[in-house]
Design brief:
This protein is an alpha+beta fold and about 110 residues long. Helix content is about 30%, strand content about 40%.
Length: about 110
């Protein structure tokens, strides 16, 4: 796992805005809240899915700015994808970020 501060348009590290990279995908964290999660692999296959935290996904202008950078899209695009069901709204802050994936690995003895 690797944690990296996001960078501003001027190339400076931004405090309290992080991307967490794991072997399963990446996570955007703003302050202490998980905002978005991209899972690249599911059941051993490349199948990217995106989940947004139902409470914090659009919490503030700053969160929105860096969420847009993380997802590489505008708020309008994000809202369309939520409405269409392409993005799932869920509670990303009630359990470890990849707990569901870790449980599956432990049950199968590996990826």
């Amino acid at each position: 796992m690797k944690v990296q501060n996001m960078t501003s348009s001027k190339g400076n590290m931004v405090a309290n805005q992080f991307i967490i990279y794991t072997e399963f995908g990446s996570v955007f964290q703003s302050y202490k809240s998980i905002i978005a999660k991209i899972v690249d692999y599911k059941d051993g296959l490349y199948n990217p899915t995106i989940e947004l935290d139902k409470k914090y996904w659009n919490y503030s202008n700053t969160t929105g700015k860096y969420r847009n950078i993380f997802l590489n899209e505008t708020i309008k695009d994000t809202r369309k994808k939520i409405k269409s069901g392409q993005y799932k709204l869920t509670d990303l802050n009630s359990k470890p970020v990849y707990e569901d994936t870790v449980e599956k690995i432990n049950m199968k003895g590996g990826i």
